[in-house]
Amino acid sequence: QVQLVESGGGLVQAGGSLRLSCAASGYMISSDIMGWYRQVPGKQRELVAVITSGGSVNYADSVKDRFTISRDNAKNTVYLQMNSLKPEDSALYSCALRHPTSYNINYWGKGTLVRVSS
């Protein structure tokens, strides 16, 4: 059974940094597309960053030049380095796995909460 477990969230002051981790178990993610999403209560979930198996990355405009997504296939883990955090970055951050041949997300983690104080 595939499990994605996020960690690294917490409370940080504006301008600070956090690194989120998404550890996969029960399955090797090296061939899959991995993404980080975030959601605030009452708002639609949004894609923050995505990384392909080959290492190509894409970011939401709101986080470009501040966030970096990376993956360590040997550790079966994906990371999201978040710098220069803003209060509007506060959200539940979840990682997701999509098989290359799938149109939809195949697996979701439960998320880790990030709160940025002003």
Tell me about this structure.
The chain is an all-beta fold and 118 residues long. The chain has strands at residues 3-7, 10-13, 18-25, 33-39, 46-51, 57-59, 67-72, 77-82, 91-98, 107-108, 112-117. Strands 2, 4, 5, 6, 9, 10 and 11 form a seven-stranded mixed sheet that branches. A hairpin with a 4-residue loop joins strand 7 and strand 8 (77-82).
Question: Could you write a compact summary of the structure shown?
Answer:
This protein is mostly beta strands and 118 residues long. The model has no long low-confidence stretch (mean pLDDT 97).
What is the helix content? under 10%
Tally of DSSP helical segments = 0
Give the strand tally.
11
Radius of gyration: 13 Å
Low-confidence stretches: none
Q: What integer is the average pLDDT?
A: 97
- For the record, give the distance between the C-alpha atoms at the N and C termini, rounded to a whole number: 40 Å
- In percent, how much strand structure appears in the residues? over 45%
Oligomer: single chain
Tell me the structural class: mainly beta
Note the overall shape.
globular
Order of helices and strands: EEEEEEEEEEE
Q: Characterize the main sheet.
A: 7 strands, mixed
